[in-house]
Amino acid sequence: MSLPPPGTIPSMETSHDALKDNTIIVVLGASGDLAKKKTFPALFGLFRQGFLPRDVKIVGYARTKMDKAEYHKRATSYLKNPNDDPEITQAIEQFKALSTYVSGSYDEGEAFAALNAHLEEIESHYASKEANRVFYFALPPSVFVPVAKNLKEQCYVTTGINRVIVEKPFGKDLDSARELLSSLKQYWTEDETFRIDHYLGKEMVKNLLVLRFANIATGAAWDKNYISNVQITFKEPFGTEGRGGYFDEFGMIRDVLQNHLLQVLSILTMERPVSFSAEDIRDEKVKVLRSIPPITKEDTLLGQYVAANGKPGYLDDDTVPPNSICPTFAATTLWIHNPRWEGVPFILKAGKALNEAKVEVRIQYKDVTQGIFKDIARNELVIRIQPSEAVYLKMNAKTPGLYTRAMPTEMDLTYKRRFTEAKIPEAYEALILDALKGDHSNFVRHDELDVAWKIFTPILHWIDGKNGARPRPVPYPYGSRGPKELDGFIQKYGFKRANDSYVWPVTNLASL
User: Which of 290, 270, 289 is nearest to 280 (CA)?
Assistant: First the structure.
């Protein structure tokens, strides 16, 4: 009997209904930006690595009328081959050969009947009667329901497995999300539905489960007795750049905090699951989210970027409504009322047009007992989600040399240095593969979505002016760290800024 490889996680190895043969992947919204920039490159990545089902076919569907050559040009426009590698060039040609296109509307049954005829023609060449279909919604939420309805009525197979992969945003507040969820549920079961939040496919977010539950050392200090505060930060160094119309409708909280950062928070704070199977993980995430009361305006800081450093302000973007007071920066503090986390502030921060591109979790521990030390730096565990995936523990050590002083340094796991030949997959590659395997672990369950909206809806209604005057965000310069009020905001929750001479990953002793 062969033994499992070391480090196996048995409950993650359980068999799902993996699609191995006779599968068509239908990309709805195939002419749009999301499909072009994310969906097709992810499918190509899986195709090149041999992870798609055998003899898979990909069918694009959208309203845009285009011939095969134009469709293939669009679908492959973001596939990377900077050095014209002949092997990649050949793979792109093979990828084109398995992909076809059908144009049609999103709300007419006849158009989907035509799509179904195209799918049946492909399936007529199968050796067996089994036929599996995966429908990927690279679509705006306004057409989710008619598309879900038409697919169920016109394109649903009874001789195999049907699945739908739905992209965010799932509504704009609790009521609209519930309405959307219940409308989709009329046609597709929870088991057939995979709601993508692409942050759940990121390597370091998936790694959080192992970091937490496979290490006694970190788990032992993972509660209110040792942790002072936690920050989850999302920074973009660019503004709306022509996407102002979409962004102004949703804002920074809906775009990033309510989904991506809250997902990270739930994995960071949930209790140990019974197993790593999908439902056990998602049960624990829902449990911890239910312990979080709605955010208050007193625990919120809103900002909007203005022109600086030769870059335009938010209101200078022609696609943004004039005089908009939509926040492009938001910091909100959440509290978890359970025995592990009572009293620990979780500060979620996200902004556009900031000084760098970065997503990270920063766990700051409490002060060491003073007495023998004076002004000693706090320990911090930092999990860098992107770019340059890393985990580092900021700790104190004696300064090298003849002085007896403590200085902050770190135990550093930087992926690029530690794992030299590793290829870290794109989040969409990982999630599409999970959907093909039938593994729901990294997808958002309906009750999880419901409780997430409960936490954020009151603050969103305040920002939207549904219960009084709309708050006016404070200005911050394009390319800055955010509003000048941010330092005071995070300090009021107990965060202590590190010594300015400390820089990860290198400290220059000559400057001390």
Answer: 270
Query: What's the pLDDT at 71?
Result: 92
- pTM passes above 0.85: yes
Percent of the chain with pLDDT over 70: 95
Kindly report the backbone phi and psi dihedral angles of residue 33, in degrees, each rounded to the nearest multiple of 5, phi listed first: -65, -45
Contact, 331 vs 346, CB < 8 A?
A: no
Task: Tell me whether residue 65 is exposed, middle or buried, using C-beta atoms within 10 angstroms of its C-beta: 0 to 12, 13 to 18, 19 or more.
Answer: exposed
Residue 2 confidence class, pLDDT cut points 50, 70, 90: low
Query: 37 with 78: CB under 8 angstroms?
Result: yes
Give dist(CA 476, CA 393) in Å, integer.
Answer: 31
Q: Are 209 and 200 in contact (CB under 8 A)?
A: no
Q: Residues 369-404: pLDDT tens digits?
A: 877 888 888 999 999 998 888 899 999 888 888 888
Residues 6+ positions from 318 with CB-CB distance below 8 Å = 244
Q: What percentage of the chain has pLDDT greater than the value 90?
A: 63
Q: Using pLDDT thresholds of 50, 70 and 90, give the confidence band for residue 10.
A: low
Distance CA 41, CA 37 (A): 7
| 337 catalytic residue (yes or no) | no
SS3 150: helix
**Structural domains of the chain in order of their starting residue, each with its CATH number:** 18-167 (3.40.50.720), 200-425+436-511 (3.30.360.10)
Residues 6+ apart with CB under 8 A from 320: 240, 244, 245, 247, 248, 314, 326
Question: Active site residue: 198, 260, 337, 446, which one?
Answer: 260
Report the SS3 class of residue 104. Answer: coil
The span from the CA of 74 to the CA of 81, in Å, is 15
Q: How far is residue 350's CA from residue 199's CA, in Å, rounded to a whole number?
A: 14
Please, what is the average pLDDT of the chain?
Answer: 90
- Range with lowest mean pLDDT among 30-44, 155-169, 491-505: 491-505
483 by Cβ neighbours in 10 Å (0-12 / 13-18 / 19+) ranks as buried
Burial class of residue 335 (count of CB atoms within 10 Å of its CB; 0-12, 13-18, 19+):
middle
